[in-house]
């Protein structure tokens, strides 16, 4: 009797779910192709897709609407032709997008967008939360990169969500402008700009005081391996983060893959980003 009743309840629940889905006109599952072909592409920008455990379309791409993925396909094609390839990687972008999607984050500042990969994906993540109005202020020193990014932001119909600026991320006027555009202090600041030790320290000193308690500062390229990205050879983001945290006890922090050195086996890493990601949080007062 119990088994028969359970089967009856399950069958009724399934039928009810089918009817609700039909009434809601749920869109079809995103086509399986999407980024799957990247696994066969030998270009270094697609290294993540060739790892042993990543023979699938990551949620970062699978969850995009069809029109959003079409934008990304066009973006990959044009940046490939132009040779403008230096975007943040899938593990880091998936983590940041997940923070937005899972926590209803509405105010984000990005320091360093280069040719727009991360600005597009952050914009898509913010739009999916139902934001109305500017939610991402993104700045880069390179005028050509900003112009290109803005072109694709408009193509993605994200101009109401993403505000693209050209300038130095340590400009003292920027925090007030960002606060005005966002309607409040940033909840996340993502730093992926010069990777230079002294410049990163100035970014931390400028932006950290603008953030409310519990807000997050995320800095990409914070590993031993990524210290080689510092054009000044002074220790890069890793050294800046270590010294800044030691001098600012109101902040706590950790660095994913901070100790990863050149030559590391990506397949052996749990967090697959050898470049490392520092996660800093302002303690609640």
Biggest sheet strand line-up: 3-2-1-4-5-7-6
**Tally of DSSP helical segments:** 9
| Regions with little confidence, pLDDT below 50 for 5+ residues | 26-30
Please tally the β strands and state the result: 7
* Fraction of helical residues: 40-55%
Query: Rg, please?
Result: 21 Å
Short structural summary:
With 285 residues, this protein is α/β, with parallel strands linked by helices. It is built from 9 helices and 7 strands.
Q: What does this molecule look like?
A:
- The chain has 285 residues and is α/β, with parallel strands linked by helices.
- It has nine helices and seven strands; from the N terminus they run ααααβαβαβαβαβαββ.
- It has helices at residues 2-24, 59-62, 66-82, 90-103, 117-128, 143-155, 174-182, 197-207, 236-247; strands spanning 108-111, 136-140, 162-166, 188-191, 216-220, 251-256, 277-282.
- Strands 3-2-1-4-5-7-6 form a seven-stranded mixed beta sheet, with helices on both faces.
- Helix 8 (197-207) packs across helix 9 (236-247).
- The radius of gyration is 21 Å and the shape is globular.
- Residues 26-30 have low confidence and may be disordered.
